[in-house]
Amino acid sequence: MNSKKSLIVGAVAAAALIAVTGCSAQGTPSPSEPGAAEEVTITYANFISNGGNEENLQKIVDAFEAANEGITVEVTTTDYANYFTQLQTDLAAGTEADVFDVDAGAFANIRASGVLAPFEGFDASAYRQGVLESYAVDGAQYGLPSSFSNVVLFYNKDLFDAAGVDYPTADWTWDDMSTAAEQLTDESAGVWGHYQPISYHEYYKAVQQAGGSFLTEDGSASAIDSEAGRTAAEWLTAKSGTVMPTAADGAGTPDFDTNLFKEGKLAMWTTGIWMIGLVGDLPFEWDIAVEPGDAQKASATFSNAVVVSQNSEHKEAAQKWAEFLTSSKEMVDVRLSAGWELPPVSDESLLAPYLEQTPPASRIAVFDSLDSVADAPQLGANATQIQDAVGNALGEIAAGRTTVDEAIPALAAEIDGLLQ
Amino acid sequence: MTKPLAARIALYVVLIVGAVIMVFPFVWTVVTSLTPGATLTTTPRLIPEDPSLSPYIELFDRVPFARVIGNSLLIAVVSTLLQLVTSAMAAYVFARMPFPGRGALFVLYLATMMIPFQVLIVPLFAEMKTLGLINTYAGAILPTIATAFGVFLLRQAITTVPYDLDQAATLDGAGHFRIFVQIILPLIRPALATLAVFAFLNTWNSFLWPLIILRDPLMQTLPVALTSLQGQYSTQWDVLMAGSVISIIPMFALYVFAQKYIVQGVAGAGLK
To answer: What is the assigned CATH class of domain A150-299+378-418?
Structure first.
């Protein structure tokens, strides 16, 4: 008796379902099928253009399509924070784009899962080698760097002149820097010699500058309980209170270092190139230099790259687009006129409009820093905790509450426990 | 009325402090949205310096706003209606039609509320890919239409309706469908309204699934489109807050009109 009624109920539900499916049809963009033999459509998923550069990316796409008859590029743009959520789902379901963005942190895992196609027959000389190597594994190139940002040494020329100290050069080491910082510090005038954040990011780089590495070669354990690890900790923490303001003075609070430099009270400043645009017009002469190292140079570099999917049906066209996007003159021109961050291209003539802007006069230091890139350690799931642990330990040393010899072995053990 | 004055003053002090704490983020949002170039890192100002609508204009410039709001409304309304249909029918069965294993099935159904959605995303996405529903409204709506919460809420409401009414109707020759439509549904209207409000709020605010399934900028919903305003290194907070203010408006309106039902429904079901 009741079964008839439940049939009706079922029919209503089915009708409702059809209604949903029906209303979807109007909004569904028809999938672009590769039509004629030469007509190829490749998809490109990106985050680099998100937040204001969408139209600039389209200009690069237009230039590429004009130069490559028959290839169409379909762009999807997602914000950085959510891009990787989408990418993971896509990789799991096999629906990833032909060409897609990765950042240096995500690259290793994605590459290891075997979904990336190596680049073949591309022009490696078009890129600065240090960054290119970040995306190469066992001699194969799996990603082409599409943009970068890095850390250089800013310095106030007027303060150097007043103290009679020579400007930093590419040959400088930590010793030269310490000596200069001491000479430049003038407590009565409130002038400090050097400011470098006491943080995880500075530390892993300093360990490499001291000739060591933050993790062991296979990445399974920390390698900081070593000569280099101690030297680096000493280097970062000993400045506090002698040539650099202490936390009690306000160091580490937002914009503290920026304001100090802008007021002309900081002689040397280890910070990112994004500050070049942010410091604005200053009433004194200033310049930048490649950051000095100790045993070797190593500059903190953040980069993004484009990769080609192993599942792509149009690998050749996909690779062409990836190359165009990262090394073409058209791309450099669009980015320069838009003030969009540049990829690590090697051809200085392309970069002329960027390099000619002053201050700083030595803008080329931005690109020269790319010759020795500090590799960011792969910290795994507990990355944030490890970074906090490093920051805390260094802060304790800088404040004089513990010593390098006590804190570093304990920190190394803590990191080992957090690595998985 | 009879409370001592001191107790009443204390009560109002607590309420006012609570209200200020609750309202402050909203005021900050509105003020930021009216201050071009504002950031959230500086000390908040309660009165905009140099107020201007330019963040709103830029917002409409950057995001296909009418289309995005249309998407959000369509998905939220259709999903809400279907949730009401599926939940009410399932609830009726669980409340009124005894069959072997009904209790166990109901518990099993409720247990699905405990599974975090994040766990389901990849299989669900793969399923949608097989069905060819990626980047469609159907793909965004279908996974939301059967909710254990809705079934539970309505089942509780239906059990409060006296069974005598069903029996009387059966004597008059009514079948299950007629009882469901003509007797039960009108009597659980407050619960239906509550569920409608909850369903609408959830779908309207829903972020993760629309983000994954809708890829075309013209298909995106409001919360997803808003995050596209955030950059890798920096965010234009004024524009983002302008978008947030606009996204709050429909929910604010809904809440003002349906506040009675929300409070009633929550109190009735003993849920929060």
So the answer is: alpha beta
